Amino acid sequence: MSTYKIEFKNGILRVNFGEPAQNDQIVKDAAARLEKMAESGELVGGPLLKINGPISIPVAFVLAHKLAHIYGAVGFFDPKIGKYVISITHNPAYKLGDLVD
Fold it and tell me: What superkingdom does the record give (predicted)?
């Protein structure tokens, strides 16, 4: 089992911690999982990617680096607001800080 779980389900990238580990191992596992998903065609890019689930700051940087190249905008779910907050955008349809369902 991996230290970090990533799956693309119903148009949302679902993330979660797996086996207990330190961030040095978790970022390696997250990067490897994203690479596998890209190679299999599971992550093909598009105008918007929504991410939902717990994440550490180092893992967030890995996801941002890998996904910002293939998606026009990336929104992360904020449970306090109940919406996705656009935190990366190259897509004029989305501005930083926009809230989306």
Answer: Bacteria
Q: Map out the domains of the chain as residue ranges.
A: 4-72
Q: What is the pLDDT of residue 93?
A: 98
Q: Which segments of 27-79 are extended strands (E)?
A: 49-52, 73-78
Q: Given strand 83-89, what is the order of strands in its sheet?
A: 4-9, 12-17, 49-52, 73-78, 83-89, 99-100
The whole-model pTM stands at 0.94
CA distance 99 to 51: 13
Distance CA 29, CA 37 (A): 12
Contact present, 66 and 36 (Cβ < 8 Å)? no
